[in-house]
Write a structure and sequence with these properties.
The protein is about 75% helix and about 0% strand. The chain contains 20 helices and no strands. It has helices at about 5-15, 20-25, 60-75, 80-95, 100-110, 115-130, 130-145, 150-160, 165-175, 185-195, 200-215, 220-230, 235-260, 265-285, 290-305, 310-320, 325-335, 340-355, 360-370, 375-389. Helix 4 packs antiparallel against helix 14 (about 265-285). It starts with a helix and ends with a helix.
């Protein structure tokens, strides 16, 4: 097989074999706040990292200012985009209070009333402020847009019960938990509604199911202790009370750790800033502005040196632009950060093959197969590359 033939064959498999991987880029990240890192080299002119937010001594105020500035810049560039306003709203919500977030989310739904995140955000703010009627109104609009968002029925039911509209909450929750997306949180909420209606047998069955799904769900165990006592099953009530006490002690310890992390202003604000830059970078990539997208995504990596999702976005961005050398460097970083992720090794091998390094390509795809020997995609690519060496 000629070198040209080998390259074209590997290129075709690269596009097909990684289609699912590229789609995975769009999932919501779990950001981690990290320490100061030097800008990662991605083979292009460095972005401007002179902002104090990217310095070793960045303060929470520096990070907040940078995050809000990038989100406000987004809506300045795209004032008619509901998605841009949603990014600004979420950044305000996390950094500068409810008034600015409410204003931005109201702008969102004015531009696009189908944006579920905006309705949910408005409902959540009303819930937090204790305005139950307004919360129900906003959350009903969110619920009408999607039956698959499990957050909405739980919060909506809570607000309905606070308004003493318990039967209404039960009807909605029974419909929700009968489907494939029933969650422990929804079952607990339904069990609590049954308790308020004195339907104790239904409450027990529902809460037992919730506890089976999530054994560490304190609210389910507490509800079971209550309903078993009502039903006269004192042995079960004592058992659940003891279980709740154990879970409560564990929860207190975890709560202290979470409180300490949340109250580390610099670390938590760095995480929020990284998310704002990531969302903005994704948005600009969608608007076919790769230079701006790359700049913002590289800044995410400076804010959080271990950030996976930003690197996945950069990888997709460089793939779209045919920038194989830059994409290869991102793959190297991903395989170092997540050495047990076979997709990273697959893509590392495919890019090495595309650049003519078939020995390195075979080594990388062999590593992917070691991680997941039964993966047909990995095996197909490895065999083609191995034959072409």
């Amino acid at each position: 097989m000629t070198a040209v033939r080998r390259r074209s064959l590997v290129y075709a498999i690269f596009i097909g074999a990684t289609a699912g991987f590229w789609l995975s880029v769009w999932s919501w990240p779990e950001d981690r706040s990290g320490g100061r890192a030097k800008p990662q080299s991605v083979g292009e002119r460095e972005a401007d990292f002179s902002d104090p937010a990217f310095s070793a001594g960045a303060s929470a105020a520096d990070l907040k200012s940078a995050a809000l500035r990038v989100a406000k810049g987004l809506v300045a560039d795209y004032p008619e985009s509901a998605e841009a306003w949603d990014i600004l709203a979420r950044t305000h919500f996390n950094l500068s209070g409810f008034d600015s977030a409410t204003e931005a989310w109201e702008k969102c739904v004015a531009l696009d009333p189908r944006l579920i995140e905006a309705w949910y955000g408005l409902g959540f703010i009303a819930h937090t402020e204790g305005d139950h009627e307004r919360a129900v109104d906003k959350l009903r609009k969110a619920a009408a847009l999607s039956a698959s968002d499990v957050r909405v029925p739980v919060l909506l039911a809570e607000e309905l019960m606070k308004l003493n509209r318990i039967e209404e909450a039960v009807t909605m929750l029974e419909s929700h938990v009968s489907g494939p997306l029933a969650s422990a949180a929804a079952l607990v909420s339904l069990g609590q509604a049954y308790l308020q209606l004195q339907q104790n047998e239904k409450a027990r069955r529902t809460l037992e199911l919730a506890a089976q799904i999530a054994p560490d769900k304190k609210s389910a165990v507490y509800g079971l202790a209550t309903v078993c006592a009502r039903l006269g099953d004192q042995a079960a009530a004592r058992r659940y009370q003891e279980e709740f006490a154990k879970l409560d002690a564990i929860g207190l310890e975890k709560g202290i750790e979470a409180y300490q992390q949340i109250n580390d202003d610099v670390a938590s604000t760095r995480q929020i800033a990284a998310r704002a830059f990531l969302d903005a970078g994704r948005f600009y990539r969608g608007q076919k502005r790769p230079g701006k997208a790359s700049e913002l995504l590289r800044k995410v990596v400076v804010l959080d040196s271990d950030h996976i999702e930003a690197r996945k976005e950069l990888l997709a961005l460089y793939e779209e632009g045919g920038r194989d050398a830059e994409a290869l460097e991102i793959c190297r970083q991903l395989s170092r950060l997540q050495p047990d992720n076979g997709d990273h090794w697959l893509n590392l091998g495919l890019l090495r093959a595309r650049l003519g390094d078939f020995e390195g390509a075979a080594t990388a795809t062999e590593r992917a197969l070691e991680i997941d020997p039964d993966n047909a995609k990995y095996r197909e690519v490895h065999e083609v590359i191995a034959r072409g060496k």
